[in-house]
Design goal:
16 helices, 35% helix, 478 residues, 19 strands, single chain, alpha/beta, elongated, four-stranded mixed sheet
Length: 478
């Protein structure tokens, strides 16, 4: 009598050299192992939705789950739901043109001479914005920000081989762009797309210095190949590139305003009795602003409505934030010359700064490396990817941030992840015992995953580690 890897008892007949699940003493098969160990006996919160038509899910004798496609009479280990974008996330479109542009940009960002081998930034997590602002705003030479960054979080042990730098950029960007500080605000249509707050000066008298600092940080992120946790309205990227803003750009920012201007464009506005001025609200008070000298007396007609629309758009996106944007661009240009980013369009610039927000689990799994005794079809690895597939995009992003230091995916997907020594795939290594929690090495994009004995145990301990990364001692080890 022996025990299989999945915990089920089997029997060996040494006379015939055969094995069997049937107990020769009773004539009955041995019981299956604890059903909680099997991933298809998952809890309700793991519901991944139905399999594609004609597919069936079964459990192998060793406890691993596999899938049968009755349409083709084929079996496979991979869950077919990985190919469903609604479950696994949208596929990442590869852009060879973007990759060529990015490589050209990196070739133009030369390393400065006569600077130290590294620039140390020591900050407190609780005051990361204030500490970083003080350090970066008072550097004797801007070029020192282009040398190797050495990040240290006060009171924490850790050597920065790239992971802490990624985490610093990630956490700092969350604070810099937090509308709580009054420098940025959410657009009118959602609560995640950012735009500059035109009244930032009323919230912070040093707001222009902060915008210059933020420009430096964005430039540093591009220079050092890091991603920020922020997405801006499309006109912001166009202003960075010096491109004109169109009526279409307003649609995703303020759909009501867009529809009004679109109606004017397509119809005769004479009956609306409009003038070349707009009403604006400032802290609950309305005031009128002329779009051009004498605009309050100039009616909008069929002949001049295009000029009216252009002036409204220019005033809405450019004039109101001109000082802030100029300060931001000044800081950015100190690190990355503006001429170098002209090769990108506004969509590519958005991805250059913030990466991809939605995570494609299939691409993630395809570009994962395994170490120790783990391999793609190891039962613990199967459980891991099933847990990831059960997560929503927010939890997937938190897991990615726990392991790599950032929740963003590079433009061309997981195959372009970088570590401390250049390209570094997402890696899962067998480590520890089931009593341990998973741990991460952000500098190497590596997750140390203990060989848990059940799917539910893996799920619970992984969630605990990710949730407690900032406060409970489960954070990455660099």
């Amino acid at each position: 009598m022996q025990v299989a890897p999945n915990g089920r008892v089997f029997f060996i007949d040494h006379n015939t050299k055969n094995t069997s699940w049937i107990d020769p003493r009773t004539g009955r098969p041995s019981p299956l192992p604890n059903q909680n160990n099997l991933p298809n006996r998952r809890q309700q919160e793991d519901n991944l939705g139905p399999l594609p038509e004609g597919w069936e899910e079964r459990v192998h004798t060793d406890g691993r789950i596999f899938f049968i496609d009755h349409n083709t009479r084929m079996t496979q280990w991979e869950d077919p739901r990985l190919s469903n974008p609604a479950i696994a996330g949208p596929a990442v479109p590869y852009s060879r043109d973007y990759k060529r542009k990015y490589e050209y940009l990196k070739s133009q960002l030369k390393k400065p001479s006569n600077v130290p081998s590294k620039f140390e930034i020591k900050v407190r997590r609780t005051s990361i914005l204030e500490d970083s602002y003080r350090i970066l705003s008072n550097v004797p030479r801007v070029d020192v920000l282009k040398t190797k960054l050495w990040i240290e979080f006060e009171g924490e042990a850790g050597l920065d081989y790239g992971g802490l730098s990624r985490e610093w950029f990630f956490l700092l960007s969350r604070e810099m762009f937090n509308p709580y500080y009054g420098l940025f605000e959410y657009s009118a249509t959602d609560n995640y797309t950012l735009q500059i707050n035109p009244f930032s000066g009323m919230c912070n008298e040093d707001h222009l210095r902060y915008f210059k600092f933020i420009g430096r940080v964005v430039g540093m992120a591009i220079y050092h190949g890091k991603l920020l946790d922020a997405f801006f309205i499309r006109p912001f990227y166009k202003m960075m590139l010096g491109k004109p803003i169109s009526l279409k750009d307003m649609e995703s920012v303020d759909s009501e305003y867009y529809n009004s201007l679109k109606w004017i464009l397509e119809n005769d506005p004479a009956d609306l009795d409009l003038r070349f001025c707009v009403d604006e609200e400032t802290f609950g008070l309305m005031h009128q602003r002329e779009l051009k000298p004498g605009g309050a007396e100039l009616p909008v007609t069929q002949e001049n409505k295009l000029e009216y629309i252009e002036l409204v758009i220019h005033g809405r996106f450019v004039l109101r934030i001109q000082p802030q944007m100029s300060a931001f661009m000044e800081g950015f240009n100190e690190i990355v010359p503006l001429t170098h980013i002209k090769i990108f369009d506004e969509h590519e610039l958005e991805l250059l700064i913030g990466g991809i927000g939605m995570i494609d689990v299939k691409d993630w799994k395809l570009n994962c490396v395994y170490k120790g005794d783990y391999h793609p079809n190891h039962i613990v690895i199967q459980w891991f990817w099933r847990v990831v597939l059960s997560f929503n995009n927010e939890m997937r992003a938190r897991l990615l941030q726990f392991v790599t230091g950032t929740s963003r995916v590079p433009m061309n997907g997981f195959k372009e992840l970088y570590g401390s020594n250049g390209p570094q795939s997402f890696t899962i290594e067998k480590w520890g015992t089931p009593n341990n929690y998973p741990r991460a090495h952000t500098c190497f994009n590596r997750l140390d995953l203990p060989p848990y004995e059940s799917y539910q145990e893996l799920r619970e301990k992984l969630i605990t580690a990710v949730d407690g990364a900032d406060t409970s001692g489960f954070g990455g080890v660099d």
